[in-house]
Amino acid sequence: MADQLIRATAAEGGIRAVGAISTRLTEEARQRHQLSYVATAALGRTMTAGLLMASSMKRVGSRVNVRVKGDGPLGGILVDAGLDGTVRGYVGNPAIELPPNAKGKLDVGGAVGQGYLYVVRDIGYGYPYSSTVELVSGEIGDDVAHYLVNSEQTPSAIVLGVFVGADGVTAAGGLLVQVLPKAARDEALVAKLESRVAALSGFTPLLQAGKTLTEIFNDLLGDMGLTIFPESQMLRFHCGCSFDRVLGALKILGEAELQDMIIKDDGAEATCDFCGKVYQASSDRLAQLIVDLQTEAAISD
């Protein structure tokens, strides 16, 4: 099943729901970064959460940055997700592996540890909106729900899952359900919704059972006036890094540093943290950057 995101409403617009399948993009991230089992689960959940949060933004080009900074051996997570359905991300220690937790599942919480969740929403103009909350469990889903309730004052339930085996990621995705102000006063509706979300055994078991996003929405909200938007959005792992950007970053180092690279290393090598792509800049290319800097300095004088 292709990676995709669909949106829906229920309770006459009082409930907003978004569902995402992110199996392929999570597997691509696993391969790019050579992730362990637990690191795959942690990054996959966070990338899905980023896409679910970005889906509510309105302006073309809007993006959400999600940073999980804990004191566990994973060393942190950074994800960049866009309204356009693109996402990229990485973890601090991709090789870390831990025994299963008490429930027999991948111990994402133990890998993340205690710390903070940082969210930055960039709507494409003005200053980005940023907020920080303490991690609740390190399992990502609980932490994002805690952020949405406390920083955006929107009661939310989020279910995230990644199933990774010997052959890689075979199921990944998530579901975000939010109660908007017009429905928040209906205590019976909220209790009913909470009960149904709590009864879910997870998200990946639903995908493994062959459920589509539409079927999952119908099971959860079908008797609450569910309206599923007809358009589905394709999702993919994408990084906007380029050789030109690498050269721009090298140029910022200045003439002396570039000259030192030419003498000591006969060039420069840079690796993109987000996608793992390696860029090589020859000594001739660095020499041209020095010429460019000298020319710019002469013009400014």
Automatic annotation (TrEMBL):
A molecular function (GO) term: protein folding chaperone
* Localisation: Cytoplasm
Q: In its keyword annotation, does this UniProt entry include Aminoacyl-tRNA synthetase?
A: no
PTM annotation: Under oxidizing conditions two disulfide bonds are formed involving the reactive cysteines. Under reducing conditions zinc is bound to the reactive cysteines and the protein is inactive.
Q: Which InterPro entries match?
A: Heat_shock_Hsp33, Heat_shock_Hsp33_C, Heat_shock_Hsp33_N
**Keywords of this protein's UniProt record, alphabetized?**
Chaperone, Cytoplasm, Disulfide bond, Redox-active center, Zinc
Q: Name one GO biological process term.
A: protein refolding
Q: Name one GO cellular component term.
A: cytoplasm
Reading the lineage from the top rank, the first entry is: Bacteria
Q: What is its main location?
A: cytoplasm
Q: Which family does it belong to?
A: Belongs to the HSP33 family.
Please give the name of this protein.
33 kDa chaperonin
> From which organism does this entry originate?
Dendronalium phyllosphericum CENA369
